[in-house]
User: Fold these one by one.
Assistant:
Number 1:
Amino acid sequence: MIKQKYVLLNCSNKQHAMRIISYNVNGIRAAIKKGFIDWLKTDPADVICLQEVKAHKDDIDMASIEEIGYSTHWFCAQKKGYSGVGILSKIKPDNVFEGCKIEQSDFEGRVIRADFGDITLFSVYFPSGTSGEVRQAYKYVWLDEFLEYVNKLKKKRKKIIICGDYNIAHKEIDIHDPKSNKKTTGFLPEERAWLDKFYDSGFTDGFRHLNKDPHHYTWWSVMRPSTRLENKGWRIDYINVTDNLASRIKEVSIFPQVKHSDHCPVYLELGDA
């Protein structure tokens, strides 16, 4: 059985503005070869949530990241070269929790949490379901287990931010071709209904809170390289916040010009409390 690890860092943080990025890097080592470290040097955010790092801690160039001023926190999959999440932060968290006490999810390294004062922030890599019926069935199990976990946590931690690759495009506006993809995993009615339930449980879509425009995507298929140039993508990466934080959202953006991955970074700035 996988045991949840706790890293206690014990400090207090006043609730000032926080710049947050969520980014599926599709392999941190590959991203570093494509200029990820140089991008970090541009100070893109105070806290960067990574997904699909595909590496164990010993394989990651921690020193180059920490020299820039980021503390590094990782929760890697037991299987090498698979899944894994991380949080890079210029703001020292009070606590870091690796995993979510759900055995299969923790085995796959899908959830890491950091607390900053009264705000709890997650980096989460949702299952994709693209490899077949078995994984699609597991995706539905995972979604329900994760929402139950979050709802229990909300009783103690009222202000929550969930960054991640959700592997679900919510609305037709979030996918370039909704008609031909209506039976494709990531845009199935059951998956979209789960996101409806998730938002109804007390969460706000951070990007859509300020930006209602179409043609904003965060992932493009590598099967056809031209899809990114043509902007034929999906918005499946999110920074979602509990409704009580929505009024503090000051700026949101998506950065398709940042190209270390088949995904791109998603940005949200939280203003002072």
Number 2:
Amino acid sequence: MAKIRHVVGAGLIVYADFMTTKKPSGPLTGLKVFDLTRVLAGPTCVQMLADMGADVIKIEKPGSGDDTRGFAPPVMPGTSESAYFSGVNRNKRSVTLDIATPQGQEIARKLLLQCDILVENFKVGALAKYGLGYEDVHKIHPGMVYCSITGFGQTGPYAPRPGYDGLIQAMGGIMSLTGDPEGEPQKVGVPVADVFAGLYGCIGVLAALRHKERTGLGQQVDIGMLDTHVAWLANQGMNYLATGVSPVRLGNNHPNIVPYQVFATADGYIVLSIGNDPTFAKFCNNFGAAALLADERFVTNAARVMNRQLVTDTLAVIMKTMTTATWIEKLEALKIGCGPINTLEQVFADPHVIARNNLIEMQHGSGVAMKLVANPVRLSETPADYRLPPPILGEHTDDVLASWLGFDEAALHDLRAKNII
């Protein structure tokens, strides 16, 4: 049966299926993923694949499942599912299976032989103990794209260490760049090290699939959170490589552009982002500061960077003359970069966020509606496919083992009695 899609209220998209057996659609339709991930980095990678049509079976430990099922409060209203788990586990079918047992390992091998992609984020070498490491799987399924996401990658002196987002943010340098210059180093307010590792993992999987398409051979995609963290240091990483000097914390200021920072207004705060000299001239000419353009300390961006404090102090007086709303109205009319500092309540109420359908709602297995953040990748011909809500632990175990492996009720009952599923 077809999927119903309709708009409820302010841009909230609701998805509901008449039948839970609806087949996936999207550019990865027909591909199957054996998901051995938990927490955030791995599940982020797999959810991206799932949203694009891949058929995912998420293997979870009987009785407890993914660690993030217990990362609560908060839980999603009307359910027992943590908000943390719900955010990165839609479009997956939950299969409980104890891979620490020989029989569980045998079932896992039978299942993965029917899959195209395996994603895991166990510590280095942990899955080899169960006969599910890359070398083990490659021998029996050479076409498998096997993605391993760990804290420090499969090689190097830190490879055996566990990886945690806060730890990686500290070791990867971003904390040395974040926070007030006079305060302590700060981590980013969301687990960016985990999320970036998951996204880089997805990119690696897609590249490996292209290679498999040409050769028929799979390979291991080795993602280290520290590696990906170093990769996205972006301009600050390059600033260090160019100068040999570690950048200092600048708070909300941009290291290479001035003014590009937070300013206090008459009633709050605003981000002012002036990216080039003509735009700075436009700002000065329209807001009573034309005289600054005759001062060589203000004329070019390079000069403004060298005289950062002077520029900041001078503009701070101007920015306090109007309210945030007035500044945004006037600056947007001149096409000068600016924006309010929104709370999450304001983010999800923002008319642009609503117009872009960034919030979806899916019917959870408990029977209640669940709000989720949409996939941000917008494909014109094969859009993200929202077909399965975040699963209840073990919700699909019987269906998958029966349809994929032909297990009957007696076999399932026996496995459950042994705590294998």
